[in-house]
Prior knowledge:
It is built from 6 helices and 2 strands. By secondary structure, the chain is mainly α. It has a two-stranded antiparallel sheet. Helix 1 packs across helix 5 and helix 5 crosses helix 6.
Amino acid sequence: MTATDPALTALAQGWCALSLLHGRIEAHIERALQSRHDLSVREYSLLDVLSRQHDGEGGHLQMKQVADAVVLSQSATTRLVTRLEDRGLLERYLCPTDRRGIYTNVTEAGLKLLEEARPTNDAALRQALDEAAKNPELAPLVRAVETLKAPVPA
């Protein structure tokens, strides 16, 4: 295949469309969360992921799992956790069975903020998808997003 191969060109155009859709959605949600709740998309995502932990078997996530879930490096995730901890939205504590492990939990204040921000996030997502659906090049991607289900962790 050459750089001008039609299959590669189509693939690149598809990737650009997907990237454009993602960027538009994230920017729309970011503006809504920042203006109403002083939260970034990444902060909201982190609170959401950590709020779904539980005390049962495999219920607490390791930092690598959290980083993967919020699509950040481990070091960026640690910095994000620290920022939210400084705001009183998260707390860290030692694993009771392995003193090397550190767990991160959402505080009551974090859960309250997440509960307040969830409708904003959901409405902004819907608005961004509805706006993108008006673009004929993005409409098929919007339909695909609307039918996807989150993958079940292995």
